[in-house]
Amino acid sequence: RGIYGIGGGLAIFTVGSLLTLVSGILLLQPRCRMFSFTLALLNCVAFPFGTILSAFTLVILNKPETKHLYA
Predict the structure, then answer these.
(1) Residue 63: helix, strand or coil by DSSP?
(2) Alpha-carbon distance 44 to 33, whole Å?
């Protein structure tokens, strides 16, 4: 409650944002596909934009030609 609730929420938001940034950088350099895939699954709870972007990311990462890039 109080300051701890705000601090905890801020910490979770910051960690999630940093992980998403790392995932974006890794998508530019085709590696660590499973990291980006897992993070996209976790970001689905961030309604509405996180859900839409995560669904798009999951569709793209599951395409055969994308899987080939990560091989």
Answers:
(1) coil
(2) 17
Q: Which residues of 26-51 are buried (b: 16+ CB within 10 A; e: fewer)?
A: ebeeeebbeebbebbeebeeeeeebe
Longest dimension (CA), the chain: 49
Q: Which residues contact 19 (CB under 8 A, 6 or more apart)?
A: 39
Place of tokens 């990462």: 61
With contact defined as beta carbons under 8 Å apart, do 43 and 50 qualify?
yes
pLDDT digits (tens, 9 = 90+) for 6-55: 888 888 899 999 999 999 898 888 889 999 999 999 999 988 999 999 99
- Tokens representing residue 67 in the block: 């899987």
